[in-house]
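ok so for the tutorial part 2 we go from a plain amino acid sequence to predicted structure tokens. step 1 is just haveing the sequence, like this:
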Amino acid sequence: MIPWAKENREIPRTHTSRLTVQQFLADYVHKNVPVIIEGSLEELDCRKWSLNFLKDKIGACPVQCRGKTDLESYRKGIKYCIHETTVGEYIADLQNGHKRSTSRYLAAQNIKRAFPQIGDASFVPKFISDNKIHAGPFLWIARNGHYEYTHVDPDEGCLMILEGEKSVRLISNVHWDVLEPNALGSLGRTVQSSVDLENPTPSQKEALKMVNCHFGKIRPGDVLYIPALWWHQVSALSNGVSINIFWGEVGESKFMKKILEEPTLTAFKYWMLNVVEQNKAHVSWPRILSRLEEVLKNFFLKQWHETASTEQIELIKKFIMTHLNISELPPLENNPPKHPPTMKIRGLLHRDRGQGKTSLQCNTSFSC
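step 2 — the prediction. this is what the tokens look like for a chain of 368 residues:
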């Protein structure tokens, strides 16, 4: 909950036995309504994953965990550093209450790449199994009390709790500016909020009085649906294990149709312009701009497995050109290569090298 919010609404719960794929899409996804779904993990291999199970199976695997996660700068999505450790050492620190565990977070580990020992397990709940997986699954191992900064992801989200409990707060992208997104050009795939929901400034607290906060507690076996480009903040109520997957509705361009409609369009524009700003300083930018339609088509095909329509590309091209204050695209270079350059989501290894607004750098571009 947010005590000073206009309204606090508990996230509805349902059980997988009462939910068909069609109902899930119609009642929640198409309406941008978050929901906690019980019982949908019982048939999945990952359901048995606990701290002890992972320590036994992948304890020797090297990982990079986030550091300085107890500082205000992390809670506002500004920066963190990276520590190298192993899964076993990280879990032992949590279980033994080692001091260094109070400022570390093992976050967003790509399971199939980082942990081949368990990468063949089943992860996808039935109610999204017929849709398109954009990215994941990712493994998260949290310490009791960890506060994950408020942010948005450019995909439908599915957060699965395997061990421990978490509290969640979701805020619609209707209230985009209230959450004060970090400056355009910040690195990474997410857009972070500079508001600490538990300790806002007086002006931030006043602005939060206009929002509706959707809140809930998620427990082992629960799956939380997070609508695309909704603000969300997750706190760990105990040491625990969770997995998340990013996805979109199956279809040639159904997901794009959704995010190009208000109120999600405002959030998507900011996210897209953030990617544009990430690329402007690179040598490939003039070539990207000269072939922008092709670049955008390839970008969305890679990100979301979506074939964007001509109308969708034209809409996105127009607001990018407006942002850049240009009325026409530059001409093609002489004898251009067959394939256009790639517009990339830019993220570096560390977030702690004193680079001002572009210091949002990380070992992965996903967050939840």
